[in-house]
Each structure stands twice: as C-alpha cells, then as structure tokens.
Amino acid sequence: MNEQNYTVSELMADESFQAYVFGWNTTAIHHWQTLLEQNPELKSRADEAQKLLTSFSIKSHTLERKTYQADLMGLKKALQQNLLPSNKQMHLEVKQSSQNFPWQWAASILLVVGIGFGLFRFYQNREEQVETLWYKTISVPAGQKSTFKLPDGSKVVLNSQSTLKIQENFEQNRNLELEGEAFFEVEKDPAHPFVVKSGKLTTTALGTSFNVKAYPEDAELEVALVTGKVKVSKDRPAGQRESVILNPGQGVQMQTAQEKLKTFTFNPQQSLAWKEGTIYLKEARMGEIVQTLERWYGVQIDVHGQETNDRHFSGEFKGQSLENVLKLLSYSRNFTYTISGKQVEITFNTTK
C-alpha cells in the first residue's frame, strides 16, 4: 500500500515508521522526514500516530529496541486485524481466565489521547467475561508534553521526561507520585484531599492549581501555587514532618543536599512558561541550559571544551526550533554546534 495513504493505525503498525519515531534507524528517519515534509495531510496523521506510540508508559525506562519491538507486536497484530476502536475513550479489557494473555504486558502502559484520561480496550470476544484494569503510571518522553484528566476530573499537564504514578481507587484516595514536572488543576473534594508526593516533599490540596518540579537529577525540588491553598511537607526521620502553607503567588524550594524548605514569590508567566510552549531561562549556567534543551527537544547534547567565562544567561524562546535556539545561544556563549538527528555536538571556541 502507498505510504502516503496510510491511516493512523497503519502508521503505528509499520516497522519503518516505528524506527523513525524512536530513532532506531537513520535511513527510516530520513525517509519519513522527507515524506512528511512533502505530504501535509499524511503528517497530520503521522503526528497523531507518533503521540500514541510515544505515550507508552513502560515500567523499564532502559528498554532496548528488541524489547520495545517485541511489546509492540501485540499492538501491531491488533491494529492489522482492526480490533481496536476508533473512539478516543479507550479501555483495556483482559479475560479473567487467561494467565498468559499476550496483552497482559499492556497493564503497565497508558495511552494518553488529547485531554482524555482513558484506558485501552481490547475486543477479542464481546461475549467473554472481562475485567477492567486501571493503569498506574503515565510517562512522557523527552521532547513532548501531555495534557489529560484524572478520574476525579482534575486536569494535569505533564512536562517532558516526567512520570506520574496513580494509586488504586484514586477517587477515594487521591494520592499521586511525581518524578519530573507537572501542573495540576484540582477538582474540589473536601472529603478527599489531593496529595502529590515528589521526592521528600508532599503537597496536599483540596481544590487549587499548582506546579511541582521534582526531577531526580535536579539540585532542588520546587512547588509553586497559582490558586487556592496547599500545604507542602518535608519528610523527616521517625515520621516527623516540616510543613509550609502556601498562598497564591508563593512557592517553596528544597535543596536536595541541605533538605531545608525555603519560601519565595514567583511570576506565574515565568514559572509556568513551559505550559505555553516557552523555554524560560533565568541566570542559567551552561549545565542548566543543556539539561533544559535535552528535556525540551528530546535530544542528547555533548559539550566539548569549556567556556572562557562561566556566564549566566537569561532569555525566553517561544515556539522556536532547536536550531534557532542554539544559533542565538552560540552568539552569546561563543560556541559552534552540529545537529544530527537526536544528537547535538557543542564545541566551545577557546580563542577569542
């Protein structure tokens, strides 16, 4: 079949397209980049297929290509047999009697579609008894973001390279665990507090909106309150906790090395710029810049040489390509760069 006429399902099942999406093969990457540039209608379908494929949340974050492809075989088979529904509210149903059902691996996978928080439904036999499995983990790969709703109606915007874990019986026990960064708009439910655990910080809210930034590799954890009121607690030995109550416009930081809570005021337009597609850097050193760009664009950046002066950089980039951002930075930081697919090389000029 002509690739230009592929549907979303056919794109997802195509091994060459999978190789393009996950960066497994440079030939496939070049082929699909060229094809999609020449076919805007196909690109629209490809974007949707790519979002579905890359929204897989798998427990192991170090899967090799063969392992990932093996997991995708079940998806491919179902797609080719037209077993999947076309609607966006999806559920996964597994036969109660099956012990080795080929789709049981999908219990660790969540597909996030648009702003719908759903599950993946697999129809094998409508007359068989089934049970619905609610997935517990949502992950967003580097270079992407995802917006969805939790079962209680709360809205979540999950930043790139972030993972959200949801406890069972969420509507009765609204407890979450976050690794990375997310913005929450919480549905009011006084009887069931909304609790986000991020490292050694715990944020408790009733009905409010707030941002949590807690990447494990960062030197600090941060909670910023936009509306309502939250309590942020730090775990201490012997079950003790240090707590801070935040009002709108206030935030709290904790240095992972010192583990001391420090409150601050913030500008929501700056702190939440990532939600609007804007990279905001404030007095950032090169290490922070590299880390931010890797998360934002889903690339690996290798830096060669050192800056003659370790200067700070402040600036905003809204809707800019990686090429444009690096070009501007190279003028102010005196380096050259090359971009090859998902690999970026930065070399500092040692002579002025």
Automatic annotation (TrEMBL):
Protein's name in the database: FecR domain-containing protein
Q: Where is the FecR protein domain?
A: 137-231
Question: Where does the sequence pass through the membrane?
Answer: 103-123
What is the annotated signal peptide range for this record? none
Keywords annotated in UniProt: Membrane, Transmembrane, Transmembrane helix
Q: Name one GO molecular function term.
A: sigma factor antagonist activity
Which residue intervals define the domain Protein FecR C-terminal in the entry? 279-346
Listed InterPro entries: FecR, FecR_C, Ferrdict_sens_TM
